[in-house]
Design goal:
mainly beta, five-stranded antiparallel sheet, four-stranded antiparallel sheet, 1 helix
Length: about 280
């Protein structure tokens, strides 16, 4: 009987201790990692006479909410926020920005200073340079989900260039005025960075006849599977150059069309590749 009373009296005590420990462990992270309330002083120190406004970025949905009036050059405004919060300073066009994360204030202080001395372009810039020497070209943005291509530039003459605002991962295609694809690009630049893409000539494949009889080159149309003759018969010891895209396939026949060999162009745009043909 005494043992039973002892056990029953200990049970509630153990439960209370467990409950208190649960509360302690639940609240401990909040105590250790709680954000500190701070006053953020934002100063406009841009060289140009450009006012800025500051936006707070919601960490959940990344939506931005304006939290200051326009701050003229040389002036300062204050924001009440928390350490770790992200703020973005924009110009009036909201095309140029500066992002900053609120740091922890120094011990015994509750104010942090942030000086905006430069802004960067909100979008990445892809510069397309036409060095092909074979006439003007145009740039098209490619929708990777639908395959649709939308014109993104005017005609770009040989030796000229054109800038397109873009985002990381965007795909562009360069075409000549006949609509032939010259090159495809994937933008890797981040906002504020200009990335240059150069379009050279198509790849050139040279077929050298090392046999004692004539041969003939045919292009394999991937869409239809048909073989299309290219140029004239190539005499022994002679060669023929063909402009192509990387990945294009050709087949070479002897003069009786009894023997053949297939070749795939691996040269990049603007590069050359030589095939020594021996059937």
């Amino acid at each position: 009987r005494k043992n039973e009373m002892t056990r029953s009296s200990l049970a509630p005590t153990a439960l209370r201790r467990g409950f208190l420990l649960a509360i302690l462990f639940c609240t401990l992270p909040l105590c250790l990692f709680a954000q500190r309330s701070v006053t953020i002083k934002v100063t406009n120190s841009l060289k140009d006479d450009v006012p800025i406004a500051v936006y707070w970025r919601n960490p959940t949905d990344r939506e931005e909410k304006r939290v200051t009036h326009l701050i003229p050059k040389g002036e300062t405004d204050e924001i009440e926020g928390y350490s770790g919060h992200v703020f973005v300073a924009y110009d009036q066009s909201v095309q140029y920005f500066k992002e900053f994360i609120t740091p922890e204030p120094k011990a015994g202080e509750s104010v942090v200073d942030f000086t905006v001395s430069a802004l960067i372009k909100k979008a990445a810039v892809a510069r397309f340079v036409n060095r092909s020497g074979s006439g003007p070209m145009e740039i098209f943005w490619k929708n990777t989900q639908t395959g649709e291509e939308v014109k993104a530039s005017p005609e770009i003459a040989s030796g000229d260039w054109y800038d397109v605002e873009s985002h990381t991962g965007h795909v562009f295609v360069a075409k000549n005025m006949e609509g032939t694809k010259l090159k495809e690009f994937v933008v890797k630049a981040v906002p504020g960075v200009r990335e240059e893409h150069t379009v050279g000539d198509k790849a050139k494949a040279t077929f050298y006849n090392k046999m004692r009889k004539t041969m003939r080159i045919f292009y394999i149309d991937e869409a239809t599977g048909k073989e299309v003759g290219v140029g004239q018969d190539i005499e022994p010891g002679s060669y023929q150059g063909v402009f192509a895209d990387p990945g294009h396939k050709f087949i070479v026949y002897d003069d009786k069309k009894r023997r053949s060999k297939e070749y795939t162009v691996s040269a990049a745009f603007g590069e050359q590749q030589t095939f020594h043909v021996e059937l």
